[in-house]
Design brief:
Structural class: alpha/beta
Bound molecules: zinc ion
CATH superfamily: Metalloproteases ("zincins"), catalytic domain
Strand content: 15-25%
Order of helices and strands: EEEHEEEHHH
Helix content: 40-55%
Strand order of the largest sheet: 1-3-2
Number of helices: 4
CATH architecture: 2-Layer Sandwich
Oligomer: single chain
CATH class: Alpha Beta
Distance between the termini: 9 Å
Radius of gyration: 17 Å
CATH topology: Zincin-like
Number of domains: 1
């Protein structure tokens, strides 16, 4: 899965210096000299992390531009987690789950906004949810959709 779409995985034995992963139509193609499952898995994980970094950085930029209280761009790191999509430290550092990049963009943006709102409200108070409602009136639907996908995404 990537950005909410399912792709068929195709492993192609190839004489390449380093395993590569590429989206091609409805296929995710992995080229590797060694098509062993562990190698394919490692190549896929590296690809997901690279895509996550790019997609989340763009999402954060877009969302920051929208927020009226103009927070400074927070540092962001990726960390694979089993039960959480993201978090925001008291010092304002965002941690996002790289597997979130498997979810639709709508859901990714919801998680990003949630964490960015924590830069202003470090809790889940009524004020926090008023911020969410103001900037993303549809966040509940997006969250429900992500909750439905969680098992598929996090247990792959
Ligand atoms: Zn929260």
């Amino acid at each position: 899965m990537y950005l909410g779409r399912r792709y068929r995985l195709k492993v192609i034995p190839a004489d390449v210096a380093e395993a590569s992963v590429k989206l091609c139509g409805n296929r995710l193609e992995v080229r590797s000299t060694d098509p062993a499952p562990a190698m394919v898995r490692a190549a896929m994980e590296a690809w997901y992390r690279a895509r996550a970094r790019a997609v989340f950085a763009k999402g954060i930029d877009d969302m920051l531009a929208m927020l009226r209280w103009k927070p400074a761009a927070p540092p962001m790191r990726l960390q694979a987690m089993k039960i959480q999509w993201g978090s925001c430290s008291p010092a304002g550092r965002l941690t996002l789950n790289p597997w979130l990049v498997k979810a639709p963009r709508d859901c990714i943006d919801y998680v990003i906004l949630h964490e960015l709102c924590h830069l202003k409200e470090h809790n889940h108070s009524a004020r926090f949810f008023r911020l969410m409602d103001r900037y993303m009136p549809t966040w509940r639907q997006r969250k429900a959709r992500l909750d439905e996908l969680a098992e598929v995404i996090l247990n792959q």
